[in-house]
Amino acid sequence: MTFLETSDKQVRQFMELLDRAGTNEYIMVVAIxxxxxxxxxxxxxxxxxxxDFKRAIKALRASQVYAPDHAKNYEAAxxxxxxxxxHKAVTV
Length: 92
Description:
Elements: H1 8-20, H2 23-37, H3 50-66, H4 71-85
């Protein structure tokens, strides 16, 4: 399903999820979306610390164990965090 195929109810539910998300969860979701869309992100690096980003990377790594079908998306999100928000070179 693409974003254009989502209903208003699904969009509202997603926005409510983001509103309730803690720091790690918020960074993880934004990183996954930004990596998928090829966007840098909404100046997120100005709102969170390097430690916050590193904890989000650890949480994404842990999530890979429980959702191996989405491991590729998590890797892309981790690379995005490192490259765009931690300003580190990413090697593939």
